[in-house]
Amino acid sequence: MKTVIVTGGAGFIGSAVVRHVIADTGVKVVNLDKLTYAANLASLSEVDGSDRYVFEQADICDGAALDRIFARHKPDAVMHLAAESHVDRSIDGPADFIQTNIVGTYTMLEAARKYWSAAPAEVKAKFCFHHISTDEVFGSLGDEGLFTETTAYDPRSPYSASKASSDHLVRAWMETYGLPTVLSNCSNNYGPYHFPEKLIPLMIIKGLAGEPLPVYGKGENVRDWLYVDDHARALWTVCSKGVPGESYNIGGNEERKNIDVVTGICSLLDELVPQQGGKKYSEQITYVTDRPGHDFRYAIDASKIKAELGWEPSESFESGLRKTVQWYLDRKDWWQPILDRKYSGQRLGTGSKG
Ligand code: NAD
Ligand code: DAU
């Protein structure tokens, strides 16, 4: 493979993918990103100087722009990560999720199909459209069980319904038009460069500011956490070795109740930034009104990607969380401008905005 288009490469996971591909392969990366509120080019400073890195600012809903970018760069593969990604924002305003996640994925598929249909035989034979999706398409688990690749789809939030729609489109484009596609569905990511609307960075930053730490409901909902660099490696493995027509579940096998995640962050802050008078960060924990339709539990069975493609995570939740807290302590230069200009930590997702 010579060239890959990564959509959403200025976001949290996309930037980890771009950094990984530039650092650990010889492949050229074209980062195609609209630069929404969630994007941050500062997450890409370490690849900026590489002659294998190109940035194209474009909207995935703009078919003409996509045609130009495919024609200009002649990719061997596409890794499609661009999306609206925050469940709470999808509750307050679903329109952008329908537009970007569904219409945008459709527009990407059509641009890829046009390019692939006309490509030389050697490109055509190896081309792959890799769609990056979420475990949330499978719905909500009770206390037992794991999501596998054959679990029936049962999305329950505007975000997960839009991602499920896009997954169905991707499969349809392979079945109907023969476009070689591969899918991956991953659990909750965490790590450096995570936008502070999401649980882990929000709790670290609010903890440091001495603000209340808002835990939804009783804090008993469970998520299965994966360190973002492990996900980036998994995605590259799927894109370069995955079998077209297949889907792969990706997860860290690290289930935690939300309250345990938050108390874990508090303990790390107690150790790394002790407060005067022995005050504990956990005293800031505040239980708040639950997220509407809050999925109870997600948990991934990642045995297929391990058995068939040889990927497994290298970071435990404990080691990854420590690295993450330390990164936020060291990189206020990255997150303070976001708080100043884009999002200052207010509650989202109550549905009150209509
Ligand atoms: P993010 O919100 O951090 O970044 C999304 C990126 O997409 C941003 O750079 C944004 O500018 C870009 N984008 C949004 N709309 C666009 C448009 N119309 N045209 C072009 N670019 C656009 O998201 P993330 O957390 O990095 O997630 C990336 C992908 O991985 C998403 O598809 C998401 O559904 C999926 N995913 C995320 C997680 C997670 O825990 N964060 C887990 C599983 C799957
Ligand atoms: O499972 C994969 C998904 O994980 C991805 O597809 C999404 O893009 C990603 O945002 C993430 O979705 P979640 O809704 O699970 O992540 P979030 O960080 O928003 O919330 C994690 C859990 O913490 C969830 O149960 C809600 C809870 N929460 C969240 C926030 C922001 C709180 O209790 N308090 C908070 O302030």
CATH superfamily of the domain at 3-190 and 227-253 and 297-316: NAD(P)-binding Rossmann-like Domain
CATH topology of the domain at 3-190 and 227-253 and 297-316: Rossmann fold
Average the pLDDT over all residues and give the rounded result.
97
Return the CATH architecture of the domain at 3-190 and 227-253 and 297-316.
Answer: 3-Layer(aba) Sandwich
Give the end-to-end Cα distance, rounded to a whole number of Å.
46 Å
Largest sheet: 7 strands, parallel
Assign the structural class, choosing from mainly alpha, mainly beta, alpha/beta, alpha+beta, or little secondary structure: alpha/beta
Number of helices: 12
What oligomeric arrangement do these chains adopt? single chain
The secondary-structure element order is EHEEHEHHHEHEEHEEHEEHEHHH
Compute the number of strand runs.
12
Shape: globular
- Rounded to the nearest angstrom, the radius of gyration is 20 Å
Strand order of the largest sheet: 3-2-1-4-5-6-10
